[in-house]
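DATA SHEET
Item: assembly model
Revision: 1
Owner: S.N.
Input lines:
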Amino acid sequence: MNPKLTINIGKLRLKNPVMVASGTFGYAEEFMNFINLRELGAIVTKTITLKPRKGNLPPRTCETPAGMLNSIGLENPGLEVFIKEKLPILKKIGVPIIVSISSEEDSREFVQLAKALGKIKEVAAIELNISCPNIKSLQSTVHGQQKRNLSCGLSTIDHRLISQDPDVTYAVVSSVRSVTKKTLITKLSPNVTCISDIALACEKAGSDALALINTLYGMSIDVQTKRPKLSAGIGGLSGPAIRPIALKMVWETYKKVKIPIIGMGGIMDTQSALEFIIAGASAISIGTANFINPAASIEIINGIEKYLQKKKINSVKELIGTIECRI
Ligand SMILES: Cc1cc2nc3c(=O)[nH]c(=O)nc-3n(C[C@H](O)[C@H](O)[C@H](O)COP(=O)(O)O)c2cc1C
């Protein structure tokens, strides 16, 4: 028996439901010597911005119990260099390329980026990163106007994100929707009280799919120096430590929206990937696991197939949201 692994995300048809998460796989060339990239369902690029960004000062990562903290600060070469230098390599791989984009100071940058990428045939989809915890930006500036005073005083970083407010989320997603027909995926932050409210705003605004979750705010201190281990003070927590939170958020969101969900957060192996699909994810993304085992995504594709064979399930689509739960 050969179970079907194909899955649809908006207009995208993926040969299997396993992608690699933004920021943990560079622009794919970094992994070329380790795995056969053609086997992946899709590749999500590191988030790009209009202009190049140097990111935060090091140290930008540190290990934590069952995970890691990062405060990369969206280091990226900017749109122009991405198109000239990174995209030609990505195009050759032969799997759908999902380009993750973000704004620095003004959400109109999302529209500019989406317009430019919309003209490129090989860009299969656009992922709106409205949930990065690591930039010193006014991500909540909508169309040039700051919605409210958003400083929370923890450090110099303004921690408020677009995806922490359903109205701001709606405004940004719908403005991008109006300029592109490409499949739109919106990436959500777990740093909220009710993620399904934000998810509903994305659906209403025309997002084709949701990606959740981005990292959780976190901190670690070196007791000898009494300094935070990250130069930025705080960062985003990822890895197995966040898996139960991510899983709960996927399940909660699945019950509220009709658009597909790409689940992520601490997926390390087949079993954890299956948990997300059973909770309601149509596809899954591998993030921190790439740093420990560059072949994790490929092993998970094979593992899902074996599980379906063993359980005599014809298609991975039949497994989505099959959680047995009376709540
Ligand atoms: C080092 C690092 C860099 C990341 N950079 C980005 C990024 O540029 N854009 C983005 O949307 N998410 C970024 N993320 C978040 C991941 O894509 C993912 O949502 C998160 O890490 C949770 O999944 P995981 O626990 O499997 O890593 C980054 C995560 C890590 C660990």
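QC remark: The chain has eight helices and 18 strands.
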